[in-house]
Amino acid sequence: MDIITLTTDFGTTEGYVGAMKGRILDILKKHNKTAKIVDICHEIRAFNIYHGAYVLLTAIPYFPPSVHVAVIDPTVGSERNSIVVETKNGHYLVGPDNGLFTYVVEKLEIKRVIKIDESKYIPSSTFHGRDVYAVVGAEILINNGYDGEELDDIVKLDTEKKRVIHIDRFGNVITNIRAEEVDFNLYDEILIKIKTKKGEKIIKCKFVKSYYEEKDEFICLINSEGFLEISKFMDNASKLLDVDYLDEIEILK
């Protein structure tokens, strides 16, 4: 069965996600098609493209070739592009061209980037998730692909400046520092400078392989997606450190 996934910052207390699903199912039914709709996440922090980009990375690569509709779109109705990204292994990513697909296309290489002609869909100026992206997602399943004006690349988030790109529900602080950028040894004591909105702080943490190896002090480790993460065993590191998204990180060693 065909699969289409949804990821949004719409939450589950409104009808927005239901409207998108209804639109997809209605279009597919008219073409005698069926699909399984999978919710990846609808609790992305409102307007937070970094959060959405990281969540897509943690989920999409583990699906068989599928259509993935993602809507974290703070500038909906503006001149930003809407796109379909076809990957080399058969996935289709549908959404605004605002950096949302930055991390996932590093793992699933881009084959083509296609600009969506929004004028074809007569969208509202505030709900492209329902009026454009849900429709395009259904069309990809019906037509086994999508054609249109091709673009050279997608808009990408800044990956040069080292910063916090995600805080998970456990309070683990995920940075955009890659495993290959880390040059310290297991169980080294590391000094990390964090620049928050309230000022700078320097913390000491032990570099470990897994959470349980240090139960009293802050730890840092390479997480399952290959990023450096700051944690505290069975505690909320982000609250203890008063850290938030996009706070700057510097390894002092």
From TrEMBL:
<dbReference type="Pfam" id="PF20257">
    <property type="entry name" value="SAM_HAT_C"/>
</dbReference>
<dbReference type="InterPro" id="IPR046469">
    <property type="entry name" value="SAM_HAT_N"/>
</dbReference>
<dbReference type="InterPro" id="IPR046470">
    <property type="entry name" value="SAM_HAT_C"/>
</dbReference>
<dbReference type="InterPro" id="IPR023227">
    <property type="entry name" value="SAM_OH_AdoTrfase_C_sf"/>
</dbReference>
<comment type="similarity">
    <text>Belongs to the SAM hydrolase / SAM-dependent halogenase family.</text>
</comment>
<keyword id="KW-0949">S-adenosyl-L-methionine</keyword>
<feature type="domain" description="S-adenosyl-l-methionine hydroxide adenosyltransferase N-terminal">
    <location>
        <begin position="4"/>
        <end position="141"/>
    </location>
</feature>
<dbReference type="Pfam" id="PF01887">
    <property type="entry name" value="SAM_HAT_N"/>
</dbReference>
<dbReference type="InterPro" id="IPR002747">
    <property type="entry name" value="SAM_OH_AdoTrfase"/>
</dbReference>
<protein>
    <recommendedName>
        <fullName>SAM-dependent chlorinase/fluorinase</fullName>
    </recommendedName>
</protein>
<dbReference type="InterPro" id="IPR023228">
    <property type="entry name" value="SAM_OH_AdoTrfase_N_sf"/>
</dbReference>
<feature type="domain" description="S-adenosyl-l-methionine hydroxide adenosyltransferase C-terminal">
    <location>
        <begin position="163"/>
        <end position="250"/>
    </location>
</feature>
